[in-house]
Design a protein that fits this description.
This protein has 14 helices and 26 strands. The chain is α/β, with parallel strands linked by helices. The chain folds into three domains: 3-96, Roll (Ubiquitin-like (UB roll)), CATH 3.10.20; 108-113 and 134-218, Alpha-Beta Plaits; 287-540, Rossmann fold (3-Layer(aba) Sandwich), CATH 3.40.50. Strands 15-23-22-21-16-17-20 form a seven-stranded mixed sheet. Strands 1, 2, 3, 4, 5 and 6 form a six-stranded mixed sheet that branches. The protein has a three-stranded antiparallel sheet with strand order 7-8-11. The structure holds iron/sulfur cluster (SF4) and FE2/S2 (inorganic) cluster. Iron/sulfur cluster (SF4) binds at residues 156-162, 186, 206, 208, 210-211.
Length: 551
């Protein structure tokens, strides 16, 4: 394999890779601003310039390039030697940093990007530590460029990542460079707003604090945030995300790079769609129809009563010869589906199993950069169906419409219904059919079904539990719990374990996603839970190391 030497360290590389790509793959830092792996190369910021020596084709003798070369644009060559730490390279880094900071307001204490800003980091690593600039700085305006994004022009370093994103990835081209020289700045074209479905990504790729997320503005300092690796729990994309939270509260969701799934991007619906997680009206305690509502301080009693009543309702119906029906929401994980179905089938092995309603809005949309936004607004319809079919052992697993029909036709005597959708999901037909039978409801938000349920148990949304989803392309991916369930709610998997144990008069074990998957993988049809399951990368889970000092 061809080899290149960067600052004395040898690296093998693949044909076509640039010097910067080789270095970054080997986790050897070369400073860069304008280069981004998902965008075209413009080599305009000049911070990545390095001294490059190429071997002569005939003699093999190393010959220095006549001037510093942009490592983001220069292809790696066999035998090439690169110095980013030579006096010439270092002088360039210092000059570029000094140039970029000439008009920068250096308002880090009030900038949302502080703590994750490349300008700040490179200033420490490659800057000169003091400014020689005596004149007045150019002042530029703050601009409201779209529904989700603000532009603080005077922090911009004109890397043009944002402009290239709107041209190359979304194809919408709302952003442009206006003016030239010292008066050039980023703007939206007259009459346009940055309001495409992927607009929030420009905030992530802006290497400084120029493009900011309105939703996150001044909400939390980034060094207090803990990052947990997760996947999209709202649509069928399976997009990899990082959930950033502090003290039990989610503050933002960002894309997690996965070149096999979402590359570096997520849609705004995934970025902002999690807000219902902290809705005040979340279901927080079990409720039993005909009994007074439990108070928060009665939580242990509420759970004891709720679980016992659920087992009485479902177990009693099965013992009386009534057919049970289980509707598993496509918002639930494969592990949730497995444990809930195990509990229902333990009481009625012939129970009717069904996948809950799968919301579809419009059609899939693929952007010019190849990113697809999915019309299916549920993360796990395929995974839930796969698990239920494995447990049904050849019997049909219904869709929601067939389940509703079976309910209305009287062939289901008692039902177990799961929701967990981000908004009201109950159709008139299902509500009507369920008004005639007793049912256990496991849900997260109040809906028109809540007052009809015989027993209601509060479930947990995907950010509050671990599990696996199968996306629209059949990729099975794990996700980790980011925050604890709200108040006294519990993950559906834990509820099912509690119900199973309660039925046998035992104490339930704590839910362990890996152990449940191992059990699932031993079932014919579910072997892929052992062989094709993509767990979250260990290094994606990052704890905040910042201690809050009370003064
Ligand atoms: S706003 Fe950010 S991404 Fe856009 S050119 Fe300026 S620094 Fe680059
Ligand atoms: S990263 Fe190479 S010139 Fe900007």
């Amino acid at each position: 394999m061809p080899q290149i030497t960067i600052n004395g360290v040898k690296h093998e590389f693949n044909k076509g890779e640039t010097i910067l790509q080789v270095a970054l793959r080997a986790e050897q830092e070369i400073p860069h601003y304008c280069w981004h792996p998902g965008l075209s190369v413009v080599a305009s910021c000049r911070i990545c310039l390095a001294e490059v020596w190429n071997p002569d084709a005939k003699t093999g003798k190393l010959i220095p390039a006549t001037k510093l070369s942009p490592t983001c644009q220069t292809p790696a060559m066999d035998g090439q030697v690169v110095y980013t730490d030579s006096p010439k390279s270092v002088a360039n880094q210092k000059a570029v940093m000094e140039f970029l900071l000439i008009n920068h307001p250096v308002d880090c204490p009030v900038c949302d990007q502080a703590g994750e800003c490349h300008l700040q980091d490179y200033s420490y690593q490659y800057g000169r530590g003091e400014s020689r600039f005596q004149e007045a700085k150019n002042k530029r305006p703050k601009k409201d460029v779209g529904p989700n994004v603000l532009l603080y022009s005077d922090r911009c370093i004109m890397c043009t990542r944002c402009v290239r994103f709107t041209r190359e990835v979304t194809g919408t081209g709302e952003l442009m460079v206006q003016g030239r020289g010292s008066v050039e700045e980023i703007d939206v074209f007259p009459g346009l707003a940055l309001d495409n479905e992927l607009s929030g990504n420009v905030v992530d790729i802006c290497p400084v604090g120029a493009l900011l997320d309105k939703d996150f503005l001044f909400q939390q300092r980034v060094w207090f945030l803990t990052k947990t690796a997760s996947v999209d729990g709202l649509t069928a994309s399976g997009d990899n995300i990082s959930v950033e939270h502090h003290d039990g509260r989610v503050y933002r969701v960002k894309p997690r790079e996965n070149t096999e799934v979402n590359k570096w991007w997520i849609t705004d619906e995934v970025r902002y769609g999690w807000k219902f997680v902290h809705r005040e009206d979340r279901l927080k305690l079990p409720a039993v129809r005909g009994m007074d509502a439990f108070a928060m301080e009665q939580a242990p009693e509420a759970w004891e009563t709720g679980l016992a009543k659920a087992n009485d309702l479902v177990g009693g119906a099965a013992r009386a010869g009534k057919r049970l029906g289980l509707l598993v929401s496509p918002m639930l994980s494969c592990e949730d589906a497995w444990l809930l179905a195990k509990w229902v089938l333990a009481q009625d092995p012939q129970a009717e199993l069904a996948v809950g309603p799968v919301p579809v809005h419009g059609a899939d949309k693929t952007f010019p950069g190849g990113f697809t936004m999915y019309a299916e607004k549920a993360p796990n319809a395929r995974g839930v169906r796969r698990v239920l079919e494995a447990l049904a052992k050849g019997r049909a697993v219904h869709d929601a419409a067939a389940f509703e029909k079976a309910l209305a036709g009287g062939s289901i005597g008692t039902a177990v219904i799961t929701g967990n959708y981000p908004s009201d999901w109950v159709g008139a037909g299902l509500r009507e059919a369920l008004s005639r039978v007793p049912f256990l409801l496991v849900d997260t938000l109040p809906t028109s079904l809540t007052p009809l349920a015989s027993v209601t148990l509060p479930g947990a949304v995907w950010l509050e539990k671990s599990g696996s989803f199968e996306n629209a392309k059949g990729r099975l991916q794990g996700f980790d719990r980011a925050v604890q369930p709200t108040d006294f709610a519990k993950g559906e998997c834990q509820i099912a374990l509690d119900l199973l144990a309660g039925r046998d008069g035992m104490r339930a074990a704590a839910f362990d996603a890996a152990a449940v998957r191992a059990e699932m993988a031993r079932t014919p049809g579910l072997e892929r839970f052992a062989t094709e399951h993509h767990a979250t990368p260990a290094k994606a889970a990052a704890e905040s190391d910042m201690v809050l000092v009370e003064l």
